[in-house]
Amino acid sequence: MEKFFSVGDVDNLSQIVKEALSEKASPNANEALGKHKMMGLVFLNPSLRTRLSTQKAAMNLGMNVMVMNMDKDGWALETRDGVVMNGTTVEHIREAAAVMGEYCDILGLRCFPGLKDAEEDYSEDLFNKFLKFCNTPVVSLESATRHPLQSLTDLITVIENSDYTFDEAKQQYIPNGKKPKVVLTWAPHVKALPQAVPNSFSEWMCEAQKQGLVDFVIAQPEGYELNEDFTSGATLVYNQEDAFKDADFIYVKNWSSYKDYGKILPVEGEWMPTLESLKITNDAKVMHCLPVRRDLELGSDILDSEKSLVVKEAGNRVWAAQVVIKRILENK
Ligand code: CP
After folding, report:
1. Other Cβ atoms closer than 10 A to 36
2. Where on the phi/psi map is residue 213: left (φ > 0), alpha (ψ -120 to 50), or beta?
3. Is any ligand 1 atom within 6 A of the Cβ of residue 58?
4. Closest Cα to atom 4, ligand 1: which residue?
5. How far is the CA of 87 from the centre of ligand 1 (A)?
6. What is the dihedral of CA 307, 205, 320, 271, to 10 degrees?
7. Pocket test for ligand 1, best of 44, 50, 157 (most atoms within 8 A of CB)
8. pTM, two decimal places
9. CA angle, corner 175, sides to 172 and 176, nearest 5?
10. What is the pLDDT of residues 136-186, one digit of tens each?
11. Which GO terms describe its molecular function (predicted)?
12. What domains, with CATH codes, occur in the chain?
């Protein structure tokens, strides 16, 4: 593995989940792999889970870790070519990425979208330039359109909390009985948030559905449909109650509109899940990538109940990061 940017960087989802759960069972079994190697984590935006879990994962593999808060501590970056840098930007990404590549064996990068221009954000210009100029493997710590470490975590969490057998001959998880029904639901928020987490969750769950692991449904209000490149194969519904019927996992997340790019649109009805709205599910477990706004996005009655997987899910961020870093160190 040379980069970890999307579900396209993994061929067999079952195998990577199994490998991640093996890291979870023996966190320090591969600590010799990263000895004398350096992981650099570069943040252009805030983070709690991604920063700490990736740092812990790299350290479990014996790596040293450097963290750079580029937004606060770095020089203002220029990403455009062919401009005279006589404005506010101080350092070009060509030099900045290349220099960080000199210091590190693997780099992680977090770079959120601007949410002003869909074409610009969906081109993933900043991530791609960083990848091109740093000359070392790069792990996405959330880019403009995707959050693959979160999505791998979410798949691990679904499989870990369901009933599957791993078929060694097929190298695949096989559901014992009915495939889990996984529902991604839009939920309210006061800020315009990126589509990266739901895009990525959808992309991974659509692939998991193709590989026979889950049935996948997305519930969203009119106007909040995600970019179709990420939802191929998903069942799309506009009524949360319909989606929740017999669901085994409810994945709650807000996102801003893709069609009316980056906007918060008026929405009819109640979209914040509560214990009451879960009654029609198949005793569903509830997931969220965190941070979550209590009683705006998700009811605290759920978050404080046995139904919530959010803390276990955040715990699994370590094993998702660890399996990805391990594969890069093994160069496979
Ligand atoms: N879920 C997630 O990526 O959390 P942070 O933004 O705190 O890293």
Report:
1. 8
2. alpha
3. no
4. 49
5. 32
6. -40
7. 50
8. 0.98
9. 130
10. 999 999 999 999 999 999 999 999 999 999 999 999 999 999 999 999 999
11. amino acid binding; ornithine carbamoyltransferase activity
12. 3-146+316-331 (3.40.50.1370), 162-308 (3.40.50.1370)
User: Which of 42, 139, 191, 317 has the most ligand 1 atoms within 8 A of CB, as the residue to mutate?
Assistant: 317
Q: Which atom of ligand 1 is nearest to the CA of 51?
A: 8
Q: Report how far apart, in Å, the C-alpha atoms of 23 and of each of 169, 211, 277 are.
A: 21, 23, 36
The amino acid that residue 69 corresponds to is N
CA of 96 to the centre of ligand 1 (A): 24
Digit-coded pLDDT (tens) for 228-255: 999 999 999 999 999 999 999 999 999 9
Listed in sequence order, the residues at least 6 apart from 203 whose beta carbon sits closer than 8 Å to its beta carbon are: 6, 7, 146, 151, 230
Residue type, 40: G
Strand arrangement, sheet containing 235-237: 235-237, 215-219, 181-186, 249-253, 285-287
